[in-house]
Fold:
Amino acid sequence: MTETRTSEIREPKPAPVPLIEARGVTRILPGVVPTTLVRGIDLAIGDNEFVAITGPSGSGKSSLLYLLGLLDLPTEGEVLIRGRATAHMTEDERAFTRLSMLGFVFQFHFLLQEFSILDNVALPMRALGARSESDMRDRARDLLSSLGLADHLGKRPDQLSGGQRQRVAVARALANEPAVILADEPTGSLDSKSSEQVFELLKEIVDNGRTVVAVTHDIALAERMHRRIHLIDGEIDSDRSRR
Amino acid sequence: MNLVLQIAWTHVRSRARQTGVAIAGVAVGVGFSVMMAGLMQGSQDDFIRQLVNALPHITVNDERRNPPPQPAEQAYDAAQIHGLTPSVRRKGIKNPLATMAALEAWIPGAVAPSVKVQAILRYATRDVGASITGIDPRREARVSELPNQMRQGTLSSLYTATNAIIVGERLAEKIGARVGSNITVQTSEGTQASAQVVGLFRSGIASVDEGSAYVLVRTGQVLARQTGLVNELRIRVGDPMEAREVASRIERQTDYKSVSWQEAHEDLLSSLVIRNVIMYTIVGAILLVASFGTYNIISTITHEKARDIAILKSLGLNERTVRSIFVVEAQMIGLAGALVGFVLGYLLCIALGSIEIKSPFMDITHLPIAYKSWHYGVAGAVALLSSFAAGYAPARKAARLHPVEIIRGAT
Ligand SMILES: Nc1ncnc2c1ncn2[C@@H]1O[C@H](COP(=O)(O)OP(=O)(O)O)[C@@H](O)[C@H]1O
Ligand SMILES: [Mg+2]
Structure:
């Protein structure tokens, strides 16, 4: 886990290499009746983008996000992270890439119930092991404070509201300073006020120079993002940028 | 705290009761293993101690392991020689005094001579067969327990009468003789003599107490009709465990058959080995069964925490890390179980050791229990090993879990 491929991956290149690139990505679930989750996806996401993935329910939005985040493997085509092919990576290498470069936020907050929120946020840093224990705690504290959770550091996730939990999840996703945040309907289970707060948070992340890719079925939110990729039946229907 | 330890700890804590049961299982396994080992080792050590105390450590007798070559064989270079009358060898150890002196010069222990004669002891009208040993009372005290086994008289009582004899208590009972009685000794060599009982002994071994008697070496030689005869040297060494080595050295030096107590009781000792193999098999089985509880709890936790595993994997923890979480949990149970088991085992040993055994033939004794640190070491190691094995299978399965399916299921 301590191998440092990151330096090689993060090395600035003269020609901008896309952060995440999908080339002809198709994912078919095997079975008596094989299910096609996504088909023939070609896209490139660069630095400092704010991308919405939209589409009707069941159109393959989550599936695409999992593929882009190396949680799932395409049956055809390939996903490149900073120009590096991932198909032939070992499971460990993919895990390391997720840990060091990608941050996930899911619709359901997915925090560890037995851990304080501080420990939840520190968890990816502990797994990476690149910082000292006090550094990790400091950073976790800073992240949570900047998200307005300074008063809750020692609390368990179930002592927080849904919006607060989702903000903790965002803080955790940011812990290892990933190049990109992949969020699957991060506001999907929140009321409109919390939803707005979380959206503002994602926007701030982009303003700070990172990339955010968020699945949403909220068209209004999607319209406020910089780029919108619309899926229908697992295929890209449209890919429009506003910048 | 280390991340793996931290997560493992929250898991076992969240299942405190089941974890407690698993720990108790391992503890009982380890405790009883330690107790069994202490008991078996204790009785074995006690048995060997008694064996070693009751017998000479090494017996050198006038036999040879390989028959000496016949003069004809040495004279003629033939493959085989038939129809020879073998040269008669005089019985006994040659130059016993010189041999004894030579042995005493280097042996770390004492040497005593004896003359063996088979005879019938007769008193009034009753007679009984006995094996008579001619001994040197002063030397005898240094190689055998006989002086301590005397019930009446002492070994030096043998000097108080001509043809004085010490007989086993049971033998005396059988023929109705007591100290002071004059009994008749008739040997297989055809000698008949009258002997005065000057002492009685009791070894506790029935066949010895009803079938043996002691006289002076000189008396034995008269009964055997061979002056200067010594057909056996008995040796007691400082460290009984060296007996085998010393015996083979004696044999190389003197050419006489020299048998250590280990060799004489090879069958007994090998039955002890079998006993130990059986014991350790049982102990292993106990600990294996104890680890089933561990397997159970780890499996339960991996199922219960499937969502957490999916989270950890999606965050980027690799399989090895996830696997080690559950292996560590199993090891925590194994370690806690072993530590509790050590205490339990120690208490069981103390409890067993305090039980009094009353027997009409013995003074009150206690069950012999051996306290050996390696008993604890082995039981602890086996417990940890089986915990590892019990945790590894579910841990591996958990680590290979595909996060996407669980994340989809929960959303
Ligand atoms: N494990 C599965 N087995 C069968 N069908 C599945 C499975 N996972 C997803 N699907 C189907 O694949 C399609 C795409 O799913 P998903 O990517 O979750 O869509 P979205 O996130 O856009 O709602 C849906 O029709 C869904 O029902
Ligand atoms: Mg979805």
